[in-house]
Amino acid sequence: MFYEIYLLFFQKGRNKVAQINKYELKNGKVRYEVQIYLGIDPQTKKQRNIHKRGFTSEKQARSWAKNTEADIDNGRLTVNDHSNMLMADWLNEWLDKWKINVKEGSMIIYRYQVQRYLIPNIGDYKLKDYTRAVHEQFINSLLEHGKKDNTPLSWNTVKIINATISNALEKATRIGYIRDNPTRFLEINKKYDNRTKRLHYWTVDQTEIFLKAAIEDKEPVWYVFFLTVLDLGLRKGEAMALKWSDINFDSETVSINKTRLYRKEVGNLANSIVLDTPKTEAGRRTLQMTERLKTVLKWFLNHSCCDDNSDVININLKAKNDDEFIFRYTTHKRGAVIRQRSVDGAFTRICKGLDLPKIHIHDLRHTHAVFMREAGVSLDDIKDTLGHKELSTTQIYAEVTPKVIQQASEKYEKYVQKKDAN
């Protein structure tokens, strides 16, 4: 191991110096660490320092040092020793102080993960005592008995929990509360790796079986809702947020410009409709309706505007409908906007007894992506349709089905035969 030390900053008369040290790992790779000297603590008479290591370049280390110094100068970072802070206190501070610019939908998920899984299990640890070994033990315990009934949590759920705590502790290292992020280089005990290849889509024939059952349901709204999700590839919150003003029957398009935060519609907000803008700009999009969806939506608009127990359209109701939510009950709860629990319940009820592979509502969106890929639509176009920011996300949704493999093989066969003929 060897060191090269650089003195970087002497700002505003403060006794504050940053050092960058270069060192080697056992495998010979070069890394950099930063130590910022903050002077002597007047109470303890000891040196105050902020330390972080693991940077892969001097430029990266200098940037971190500069940003950390700026945080100290503007008061966002204090120079006290926070390593004795409890994990529970840090996680709450992270949510309240450092995640202020996050979309509300993401905050709901963060808060749920923190309150449901993190604080009850690791909240009593001090930051300095939450080591990599402790973290691996915690993650493996979730995969072994993480649910309330002591059964395993799914791999995807644990990945989200791990990402949440990793995000929180990365910020703790960034602002100098701890030296290293113990969630890095996580190793999962293979006996707890419960990943299985779960089916994420139905075939065309299977979706037709489901839709036929939905159209026979006593509440017409469910057939229209699930057909909309399937034919447009929408997220559940996007479909629940649709208003008639988002529908253009002339151009046969649907504008996706908002989402329902149905997870927030609880407690004091149980009777409210909570809307938000899409998570990213890619989420704002205009989609083309299928012919069957256009026909069904036109029918449902007229059906929603009929007086009770009548087939006669009320013109006043139809004029008022433009800024109303599309998916409202038309039977015993006539006029009430559908709720998330009702959506889940209707999906389960309709699927019951159909002898279909078990999928979730969100998998109708996967199904849409698979159908588009089987139809030969490019991944870039599927990405735009689904409102994904990254193509890698679309690749997860648009699975390579046996039909896609067969089509690719047939194209290759034709290409080879054409070459041989020449």
Description of the molecule:
The structure is a single chain. Helices cover 45% and strands 10% of the residues. The chain has 422 residues and is mostly helical. It folds into 3 domains: 13-74, Double Stranded RNA Binding Domain, CATH 3.30.160; 87-175, DNA polymerase, domain 1 (Orthogonal Bundle); 204-405, hpI Integrase, Chain A (Orthogonal Bundle), CATH 1.10.443. It has a 3-stranded antiparallel sheet with strand order 1-2-3, with helices on one face. β4 and β5 form a beta hairpin. Residues 1-15 and 310-319 have low confidence and may be disordered.
CATH class of the largest domain: Mainly Alpha
CATH topology of the largest domain: hpI Integrase, Chain A
Can you write the helix and strand succession as a string?
EEEHHHHHHHHEEEEEHHHHHHH
The fraction of residues assigned to DSSP E strands is: 5-15%
How many domains would you count in the coordinates? 3
Rounded to the nearest angstrom, the distance between the terminal CA atoms is 63 Å
Q: Compute the number of helices.
A: 15
* Major β-sheet profile: 3 strands, antiparallel
CATH superfamily of the largest domain: Intergrase catalytic core
User: Based on the structure given, which CATH architecture of the largest domain is correct?
Assistant: Orthogonal Bundle
Low-confidence spans = 1-15, 310-319
Number of strands: 8
Q: What structural class is derived from the secondary structure elements?
A: mainly alpha
Task: Specify the overall morphology.
Answer: globular
**Rg, Cα atoms, Å:** 28 Å
What is the arithmetic mean of pLDDT?
83
What's the arrangement of strands in the largest beta sheet? 1-2-3
How much helix is in the residues? 40-55%
